[in-house]
Inverse folding.
């Protein structure tokens, strides 16, 4: 029996894992994104703790996954046909900032379509000191069919400078957001781009893409382990120097 205040090995393992906030696409759900990601090799995210919340607004119209995956369905915010005007975006950003503060800290973000677009915005805004000032810097992004916002008032802040967070961008050859996805990738410093022949979807990965993504995630987790070890060593060294 474990003593009071002691953590089980499973709890200790979860504590050490890097946390990733995963944002689903327009008029779907966190459960559906979890299912979409499950088609990838399970070893890719074995050292990451994935969180799949639902959007804050019920779907305001028909979902493309009706009859494919059970509802309810959600959306993060609303927008016009040209994607230049947005409704409830500020409320959405406030909700996610509160969620990350209360349930984090989060090391990275993963998103599909609307969720990827929103994830990149959060990272860009944080880098410019607009949001999440008390939250540690977001280290990485996994963007699947993402795009940039088109309102200049947003662009001039979020993408003002090259975003330094590590990023991987999945771009489909038949995706109607192919060009916007490429534009989003260009907003990041040294992005990894993984192309696939499919459309607007979370793609199935071939052996080469699986290897690329696995090496990328392993690099992030290894860097996190080394940083943690260095910080612990520094703290222990500082403690030894304290006067007795």
């Amino acid at each position: 029996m474990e003593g009071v205040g002691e953590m089980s090995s499973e709890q200790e393992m979860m504590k050490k894992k890097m946390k990733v906030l995963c944002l689903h696409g327009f008029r779907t759900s966190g459960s559906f994104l979890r299912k979409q990601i499950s088609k990838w090799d399970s070893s890719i995210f074995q050292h990451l703790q994935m969180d799949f919340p639902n959007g804050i607004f019920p779907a305001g119209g028909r979902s493309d996954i009706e009859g494919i995956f059970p509802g309810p369905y959600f959306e993060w915010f609303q927008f016009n046909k040209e994607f230049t005007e947005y409704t409830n975006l500020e409320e959405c950003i406030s909700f996610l900032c509160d969620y990350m503060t209360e349930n984090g800290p989060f090391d990275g973000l993963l998103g599909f379509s609307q969720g990827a677009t929103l994830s990149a915005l959060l990272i860009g805004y944080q880098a410019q000191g607009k949001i999440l000032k008390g939250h540690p810097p977001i280290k990485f992004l996994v963007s699947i069919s993402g795009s940039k916002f088109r309102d200049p008032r947003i662009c001039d802040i979020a993408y003002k400078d090259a975003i330094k967070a590590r990023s991987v961008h999945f771009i489909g050859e038949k995706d109607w957001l192919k060009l916007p996805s490429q534009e989003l990738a260009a907003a990041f410093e040294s992005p990894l781009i993984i192309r696939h022949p499919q459309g607007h979807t979370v793609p199935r990965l071939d052996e080469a893409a699986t290897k690329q993504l696995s090496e990328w995630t392993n690099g992030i987790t290894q860097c996190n382990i080394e940083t943690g070890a260095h910080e612990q060593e520094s703290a222990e060294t500082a403690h030894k120097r304290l006067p007795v």
Remarks:
- Residues 7-14, 228-232, 234-239 have pLDDT under 50 and may be disordered.
- The helical segments are 9-16, 30-37, 89-103, 114-127, 152-158, 178-186, 207-240.
- The first strand starts at residue 18 and ends at 23.
